[in-house]
Task: inverse folding
């Protein structure tokens, strides 16, 4: 691959990919105590950082997973495994976004149209190349930060410190469950393992650490504000974070959910583009188009199966995510030592 | 060329499918507020809406149904317009509806994505339709006055305020108790001076004007309230008081102590009395508030309605103790003992001798 990006761009892409989960997180997917999720966020991101160590150690030895796989006799099955993982995980995420939109902002809009537009934009970005996607990430990153600041300031008028909850009131079960749910949503290790191949400078784990800690802090901040503003009302809402955005107001701005929708659509487009770029590294443009069509079909078929089953499918996807994002780089790292 | 065609098609799809303005503005019914009454099994929902045909700029009609949404669903049939729920700013529920539990009638406003959860919530001791149909000089009183009536009363320390979101959050808290402002009509205007107490979404009782004042004090929400007390020489002294801190303490979960700190400002004294004893006035204010507070505490313990959040305090400060008491606390609530310590201090500017005196 000719196009290269710098490590900072990779980390911004990873920041946005992980941040995208906040919007579609439903109260059904989380346990009863949202307050415990504040700790879950940090544990899940800590886990993500720890599991990324083999990727960075491999990179330090001037090796990456795509290079190693290309030399391997298992190139085809492994590349296909990555492709299938990206197709399935992204289909689930598009479904979750479609569910959010048809349950909130655009109840009458056909889900297939939303998915088509999202895929069209992300495929276009991926075809333009990793550089184009990385450059766009800076732009989206700025919008994400502005959106976050607006939401925080806009929710201030509702904050009531008495609405705070008690950590571990029902034991640690809620926190552990939320950690697994959040990890299943934020883990982009397979994408990182592939995309690091495009980095031309030294990508250090400290950069990834900073990026992930920043996302964790931003997500934890949203959870704290959510609980302090809405209290236990949050558990009555399908998408509590979206509801928070609808009630946030910053005179003269009201209904900040429109800003939220705009920002998150951009983040999702970018996240999908990252996966398409990863597919393009192993295969060609044709594979990108075919996987986009399959994603369109799968995501639209999943819509309406209620919010919860997609969360469970996502939980099962932790296993292939760990195989492709942790065990494969670890295998090549150990093989290199021998 | 292909790129341009694709961009054009994408824009076309977005414009035709993702516009929130699928109906023109004149086709929308801009709802200002709702009134919910009940007659037997039927909900009667009064709807205040913006109207250009009316001199007052607003009009009202009612729809009926087996549930609130069932009634609201008939709006389009009645008016031929698409209701815009998010523009509504208040809901008034009759005491009959509140007595059977607001969870039965408010679920629509909690669950339905087009409704706004920060919509203001009121209870009336009469019917909600009377409130929505209230007229002054033969013209409907503007909806803004309803919301402003609580805002103004709240700002002068006379009324509580609540939204659907805060009401549900309080009702789902450990205390399961919440309060709503009671709106009434007096002399062709709205008054929000009394308060309705709820337990588990059901109306329990009403607090008088004085008890509302005490509730605001003990919950730490009293601001800018005026208080007239008798000075050392029997003259009337006007003060403005605000609660600067309100804390609940308990070691055993049975005896509760409420510590209140009040800041007072001397607003007016008769011309001839320029040298009042601050100490005397501070004690006097504390005593008067103490009397009101004890009256309120008797009322809430008698009704077993934990609107001051003793259970929330235990849950947060001593969750181990709360786990033991959680199941029986509501049943034994009338057995708890409470004491109130009030400390009043005047904000002194050093210029107290100025003024007309």
Result:
């Amino acid at each position: 691959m000719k196009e290269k990006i710098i490590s900072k761009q990779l980390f911004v892409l990873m920041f946005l990919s992980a941040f995208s989960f906040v919007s579609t997180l439903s109260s059904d997917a989380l346990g009863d105590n949202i307050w415990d999720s504040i700790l879950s966020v940090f544990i899940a991101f800590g886990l993500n950082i720890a599991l990324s160590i083999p990727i960075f150690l491999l990179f330090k030895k001037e090796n990456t997973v795509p290079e190693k796989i290309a030399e391997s006799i298992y190139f085809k099955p492994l590349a296909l495994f990555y492709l299938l993982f990206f197709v399935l995980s992204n289909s689930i995420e598009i479904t979750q976004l479609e569910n959010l939109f048809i349950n909130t902002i655009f109840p009458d809009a056909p889900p297939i149209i939303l998915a088509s537009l999202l895929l069209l934009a992300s495929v276009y970005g991926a075809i333009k190349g990793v550089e184009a996607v990385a450059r766009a990430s800076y732009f989206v990153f700025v919008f994400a930060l502005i959106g976050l600041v607006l939401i925080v300031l806009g929710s201030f008028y509702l904050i009531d410190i008495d609405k705070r909850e008690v950590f571990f009131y029902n034991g640690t079960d809620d926190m552990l469950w939320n950690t697994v749910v959040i990890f299943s949503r934020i883990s982009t290790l397979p994408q990182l393992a592939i995309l690091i191949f495009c980095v031309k400078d030294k990508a250090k784990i400290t950069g990834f650490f900073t990026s992930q800690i920043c996302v964790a802090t931003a997500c934890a901040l949203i959870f704290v504000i959510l609980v302090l503003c809405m209290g236990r009302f949050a558990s009555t809402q399908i998408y509590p974070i979206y509801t928070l955005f609808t009630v946030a107001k910053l005179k003269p701005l009201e209904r900040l959910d429109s800003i939220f929708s705009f920002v998150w659509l951009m983040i999702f487009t970018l996240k999908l583009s990252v996966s398409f770029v990863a597919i393009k590294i192993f295969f060609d443009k044709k594979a990108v188009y075919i996987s986009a069509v399959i994603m369109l079909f799968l995501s639209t078929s999943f819509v309406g199966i209620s919010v919860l089953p997609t969360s469970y499918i996502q939980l099962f996807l932790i296993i292939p995510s760990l195989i492709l994002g942790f065990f494969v780089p670890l295998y090549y790292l150990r093989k290199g030592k021998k | 060329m292909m790129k341009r065609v694709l961009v054009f098609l994408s824009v076309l799809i977005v414009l035709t499918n993702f516009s929130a303005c699928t109906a023109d503005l004149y086709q929308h019914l801009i709802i200002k507020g709702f009134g919910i009454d009940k007659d037997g099994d039927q909900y009667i929902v009064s709807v205040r809406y913006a109207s250009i045909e009316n001199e007052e700029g607003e009009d009202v009609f009612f729809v009926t149904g087996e549930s609130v949404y069932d009634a609201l669903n008939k709006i389009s049939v009645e008016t031929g317009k698409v209701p815009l729920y998010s523009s509504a700013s208040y809901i008034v529920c009759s005491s009959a509806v509140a007595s059977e539990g607001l969870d039965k009638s408010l679920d629509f406003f909690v669950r339905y994505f087009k409704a706004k959860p920060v919509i203001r919530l009121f209870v009336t001791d009469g019917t909600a339709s009377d409130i929505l149909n209230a007229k002054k000089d033969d013209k409907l009183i503007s909806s803004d006055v309803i919301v402003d009536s609580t805002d103004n009363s709240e700002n002068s320390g006379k009324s509580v305020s609540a939204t659907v979101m805060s009401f549900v959050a309080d009702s789902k808290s450990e205390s399961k108790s919440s309060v709503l402002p009671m709106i009434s009509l007096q002399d062709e205007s709205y008054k929000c001076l009394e308060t309705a107490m709820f337990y588990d979404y059901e109306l329990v009782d009403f607090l008088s004007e004085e008890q509302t004042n005490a509730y605001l004090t003990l919950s730490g929400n009293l601001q800018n309230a005026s208080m007239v007390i008798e000075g050392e020489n029997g003259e009337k002294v006007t003060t403005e008081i605000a609660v600067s801190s309100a804390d609940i303490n308990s070691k055993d979960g049975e005896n509760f102590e409420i510590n209140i700190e009040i800041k007072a400002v001397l607003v007016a004294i008769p011309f001839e009395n320029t040298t009042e004893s601050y100490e005397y006035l501070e004690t006097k204010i504390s005593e008067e508030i103490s009397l009101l507070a004890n009256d309120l505490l008797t009322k809430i313990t008698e009704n077993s309605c934990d609107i001051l959040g003793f259970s929330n305090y235990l849950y947060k400060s001593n969750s181990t103790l709360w786990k033991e008491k959680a199941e029986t606390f509501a049943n034994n609530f009338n057995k708890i003992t409470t004491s109130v310590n009030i400390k009043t201090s005047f904000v002194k500017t050093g210029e107290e001798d100025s003024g007309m005196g």
